[in-house]
C-alpha cells in the first residue's frame, strides 16, 4: 500500500509530460535574470488569495505577511491566480512563460511582478478562468462551476514552477495553502518529481470536493481515484490529495493540529491525519499578525494610544459609538468582527446579546456572510436602536477602529484553526471572549488575556460574558488584563523560524545556522 508523503512512490501514476511546444500564443516572453540572486533555498508560496490584491478572510492575510517574514531565510516567491482584482492592481506584468493546457485545463501565461518591497509574485494569466466579477471563488449565484479547472490550473502551475517552467527561477520547495493549491504535490508525484512540498491547512472544513468526472476534466490518472489517493467518499478531494502526497502537512496552531486527528474534528480526514502525525509529518505552527497592527501608530484610529493610555482607548470607543449610531454610554462595548458563518458561532453571539443588553452593554457588528445571519443581526439592531449597531460588509480600516474602540470581542467559534481577529483585538486592548478550541485555546488565557469557555453553547458564552462584565466593573483588573493582552508577542518571526526548520528538514538539508532569529 502506498504510504503518504515523500516516501510514496508514484508507481504507475505517471502522466504524460507537458508538451511545451503547443502553448505558444504569440506573446513575447521576457526572460528574468538567469543568475541566482541568492543561495538560499527557493520556496514557492502558492495561494488562492493575498491581502496585497484580494482576500476573503484569514488566509489572504497570512499570505500577505508570511512570505515576507520568510524572506529572511529563503528566496521566496508567491504564485496567485490573475483574478481581475490582481491584474488591475499590478500595472505592468512581465510575461515569463507559457504553460500548456492539459485535458480540460486550458493553457495560460505566467506573469511576474515585484511588489514595492521587492517580493516576487507569479501571476497566472487566463482571462477564461480568472477575469470575472465576484470573489476568488464565486459570485452572488454561488461558487463558480469550473473551480476544479481554476484551481487545478493553479496547482498544476505550482508543480510546473518546480520543474523549470520559468527558466530563470525554479522552486526547490513548494509551500501550498488550502485545497485550492493542494493538487500540486499529487502532480509532482505523478510526474515523478521529488521536489518536497509543505501543505498548510488553514481550514480543514473546506476540502475542494468535486464529482468523479473532475478526474477526467483534469486528466488525472484513474488509479489515483482510491482511498490512498484523491478519492473521498466517492468524490474527488483536492485537499485529500495534498494531505496524502505532500511531504509535510502543517496547520495554524498546535491545538488544531491535535484536534484534526480526532473523529470529532477531523472532517473525515482524521485517519489520514493520524497517519501523517504518527510519521512526524503533521505540525502546528501558530500564525502571527503583521506589524501594522499597532495602536501607537495606526493612522486609521480616532486616537492613537498605547497600553496604559486608557483615555486614548476611550476616545476610540466614542468614535465607534458615533460611527455605529449608538447612544452615549459608560457601559461595556462588545464587538463581532467576523465572516458571518456557522463556524464562527454567530448564533451563540445572537443569544448572548440579550445578556449584554440587559446588563447595560452595547454591541457593534461588522462582517458579511450567510444571509440568515445578516438578517438576524440587522433585526437585532432594529429592535435595539442606539444599543446595537450592525454594518454588513467588511473594511479593514473600520475593523481596526472597532478593535481599538471595543472593550470585548465575541469569538465563540465552534472550531478555529488559528483565528486572527482575537490577536488583533488583544493588540488593541479589546479582550476576546472565546470558545476554548484550536488557536483560540493557544492564544487566549482565561482571565489573563481574555475569557474562554469550554463548551460551544449559548450558555457557555453567556457565562463568560457575565465574567467579562464583572471585570469591566473592576477597572484596575480590567486594565491589567488589557495591558497583558497588548504586550504579548504576536509577530511573525517565531512562525518564520518554525517554517524555516520544517523546510530545511523537508529539503533533507541540515543547513547549519540557516534558521536563526534575526
Ligand atoms: N467578510 C470579510 N471579508 C474579508 N475579510 C474579513 C471578513 N471578515 C473578517 N475578515 C478579516 O479576516 C480575518 C479573519 O481571519 P480569521 O483568522 O479570524 O478567520 P478565517 O476563518 O477567515 O481564516 C481561516 O484561516 C486563518 C488563517 O490561517 C485562520 O486563522 C482561521 O482560523 C481560519 O478559519 C479578520 O481578522 C478580518 O480582518
Automatic annotation (TrEMBL):
Swiss-Prot/TrEMBL GO biological process terms: glycogen biosynthetic process
Domain of life: Bacteria
Keywords, alphabetical: Glycogen biosynthesis, Glycosyltransferase, Transferase
Binding site for ADP-alpha-D-glucose: 55
GO molecular function: alpha-1,4-glucan glucosyltransferase (ADP-glucose donor) activity; alpha-1,4-glucan glucosyltransferase (UDP-glucose donor) activity
Biological or metabolic pathway of the protein: Glycan biosynthesis; glycogen biosynthesis
InterPro entries, sorted: Glyco_trans_1, GS/SS, Starch_synth_cat_dom
Domain Glycosyl transferase family as annotated: residue spans: 331-472
A Pfam family recorded for this sequence: Glycos_transf_1
SUPFAM superfamilies xref list: UDP-Glycosyltransferase/glycogen phosphorylase
Catalytic reactions of this protein: [(1->4)-alpha-D-glucosyl](n) + ADP-alpha-D-glucose = [(1->4)-alpha-D-glucosyl](n+1) + ADP + H(+)
Start and end residues of each Starch synthase catalytic domain: 42-274
Catalytic activity, EC: 2.4.1.21
Protein's job: Synthesizes alpha-1,4-glucan chains using ADP-glucose.
Family stated for the protein in its record: Belongs to the glycosyltransferase 1 family. Bacterial/plant glycogen synthase subfamily.
HAMAP family, A to Z: Glycogen_synth
Identification of the protein by name: Glycogen synthase
Gene from which the chain derives: glgA1
